[in-house]
Amino acid sequence: MSHLSILPTALTDLNRLESVLISEGYTVCREGVLPGFAGEHHAFDLMATSPCGLHFAWRRAVGSSTLELLADVERQGAAETYQPRLQRIVRLYALAEALDDAIQIPALKSVIAQGFD
Question: Does domain 5-114 sit in CATH 2.40.50?
Protein backbone atom coordinates (compact mmCIF):
# COMPACT_ATOMS: atom_id res chain seq x y z
CA MET A 1 0.00 0.00 0.00
CA SER A 2 1.26 3.45 -0.78
CA HIS A 3 -0.54 5.56 1.85
CA LEU A 4 -3.20 4.39 4.26
CA SER A 5 -5.90 6.95 5.03
CA ILE A 6 -7.94 6.64 8.22
CA LEU A 7 -11.32 8.32 7.90
CA PRO A 8 -14.03 8.60 10.58
CA THR A 9 -17.49 7.34 9.61
CA ALA A 10 -20.99 7.27 11.12
CA LEU A 11 -21.09 3.47 10.88
CA THR A 12 -21.32 1.59 14.17
CA ASP A 13 -22.57 -1.96 13.56
CA LEU A 14 -20.03 -4.44 12.17
CA ASN A 15 -22.65 -7.15 11.66
CA ARG A 16 -24.89 -4.85 9.61
CA LEU A 17 -21.89 -3.64 7.59
CA GLU A 18 -20.78 -7.22 6.95
CA SER A 19 -24.27 -8.15 5.75
CA VAL A 20 -24.35 -5.18 3.35
CA LEU A 21 -20.90 -6.00 1.97
CA ILE A 22 -21.71 -9.67 1.41
CA SER A 23 -24.96 -8.72 -0.35
CA GLU A 24 -22.87 -6.54 -2.68
CA GLY A 25 -20.54 -9.42 -3.58
CA TYR A 26 -17.58 -8.51 -1.37
CA THR A 27 -15.48 -11.14 0.36
CA VAL A 28 -15.38 -10.27 4.05
CA CYS A 29 -12.68 -11.04 6.60
CA ARG A 30 -13.02 -10.36 10.33
CA GLU A 31 -10.00 -9.15 12.28
CA GLY A 32 -6.57 -8.86 10.77
CA VAL A 33 -3.78 -6.48 9.95
CA LEU A 34 -3.41 -4.19 6.94
CA PRO A 35 0.06 -3.21 5.77
CA GLY A 36 0.50 0.56 5.59
CA PHE A 37 3.15 2.99 4.42
CA ALA A 38 6.82 2.41 5.31
CA GLY A 39 6.24 -0.86 7.10
CA GLU A 40 3.37 0.35 9.28
CA HIS A 41 0.61 -2.11 10.12
CA HIS A 42 -2.96 -1.30 11.15
CA ALA A 43 -5.34 -3.72 12.85
CA PHE A 44 -8.84 -3.94 11.40
CA ASP A 45 -12.10 -5.38 12.65
CA LEU A 46 -13.57 -6.04 9.19
CA MET A 47 -12.08 -5.99 5.70
CA ALA A 48 -13.97 -6.30 2.45
CA THR A 49 -12.51 -7.13 -0.94
CA SER A 50 -14.49 -6.53 -4.12
CA PRO A 51 -14.40 -9.03 -7.00
CA CYS A 52 -12.05 -6.63 -8.85
CA GLY A 53 -9.67 -6.41 -5.88
CA LEU A 54 -10.58 -3.12 -4.18
CA HIS A 55 -10.10 -3.27 -0.40
CA PHE A 56 -12.00 -1.46 2.32
CA ALA A 57 -11.33 -2.06 6.00
CA TRP A 58 -12.90 -0.72 9.16
CA ARG A 59 -11.82 -0.64 12.78
CA ARG A 60 -13.52 0.53 15.93
CA ALA A 61 -12.41 4.08 16.78
CA VAL A 62 -10.62 4.37 20.11
CA GLY A 63 -13.04 5.43 22.83
CA SER A 64 -16.03 5.43 20.46
CA SER A 65 -18.67 3.13 19.04
CA THR A 66 -18.07 4.43 15.51
CA LEU A 67 -16.00 2.71 12.86
CA GLU A 68 -13.06 4.24 11.05
CA LEU A 69 -12.43 3.44 7.40
CA LEU A 70 -8.91 2.29 6.54
CA ALA A 71 -8.19 2.56 2.84
CA ASP A 72 -5.28 3.11 0.52
CA VAL A 73 -6.92 5.86 -1.50
CA GLU A 74 -3.97 6.36 -3.83
CA ARG A 75 -3.65 2.68 -4.66
CA GLN A 76 -7.38 2.21 -5.04
CA GLY A 77 -7.18 4.06 -8.32
CA ALA A 78 -9.27 6.88 -9.64
CA ALA A 79 -11.99 8.42 -7.49
CA GLU A 80 -14.57 7.34 -10.07
CA THR A 81 -14.01 3.74 -8.93
CA TYR A 82 -13.40 4.12 -5.22
CA GLN A 83 -15.86 6.82 -4.17
CA PRO A 84 -19.04 5.43 -5.81
CA ARG A 85 -18.44 2.01 -4.25
CA LEU A 86 -18.01 3.50 -0.80
CA GLN A 87 -21.08 5.72 -1.24
CA ARG A 88 -23.16 2.69 -2.20
CA ILE A 89 -21.95 0.76 0.85
CA VAL A 90 -22.82 3.67 3.16
CA ARG A 91 -26.25 4.17 1.57
CA LEU A 92 -27.13 0.47 1.84
CA TYR A 93 -25.92 0.46 5.44
CA ALA A 94 -28.20 3.43 6.21
CA LEU A 95 -31.13 1.71 4.50
CA ALA A 96 -30.55 -1.50 6.47
CA GLU A 97 -30.35 0.51 9.68
CA ALA A 98 -33.60 2.34 8.88
CA LEU A 99 -35.39 -0.93 8.11
CA ASP A 100 -34.11 -2.47 11.34
CA ASP A 101 -35.38 0.57 13.25
CA ALA A 102 -38.75 0.50 11.46
CA ILE A 103 -39.40 -3.12 12.38
CA GLN A 104 -39.18 -2.08 16.06
CA ILE A 105 -42.21 0.25 15.74
CA PRO A 106 -45.34 -1.82 16.46
CA ALA A 107 -47.55 -0.06 13.88
CA LEU A 108 -44.94 -0.51 11.14
CA LYS A 109 -44.11 -4.07 12.15
CA SER A 110 -47.56 -5.29 11.06
CA VAL A 111 -47.37 -3.32 7.81
CA ILE A 112 -43.95 -4.78 7.00
CA ALA A 113 -45.16 -8.30 7.87
CA GLN A 114 -48.13 -7.90 5.46
CA GLY A 115 -45.96 -6.59 2.63
CA PHE A 116 -46.54 -3.71 0.26
CA ASP A 117 -49.10 -4.51 -2.40
Answer: no
H or E stretch at 70: strand 67-71
The edge-to-edge listing of strands for the beta sheet with 55-60 is 5-8, 67-71, 55-60, 41-49, 27-35
Q: Could you give the residue ranges of the DSSP H alpha helices within the chain?
A: 14-23, 73-76, 79-102, 106-114
48-89 pLDDT tens trace: 998 888 788 999 998 888 999 987 666 555 556 778 888 899
pTM for this predicted structure: 0.80
Cβ atoms within 10 Å of 18's Cβ, excluding its own:
18
The whole-angstrom separation of Cα 59 and Cα 72 is 14
Would you kindly state where each structural domain of the chain is located, as residue ranges?
5-114
47 neighbors 21 (Cβ within 8 angstroms): no
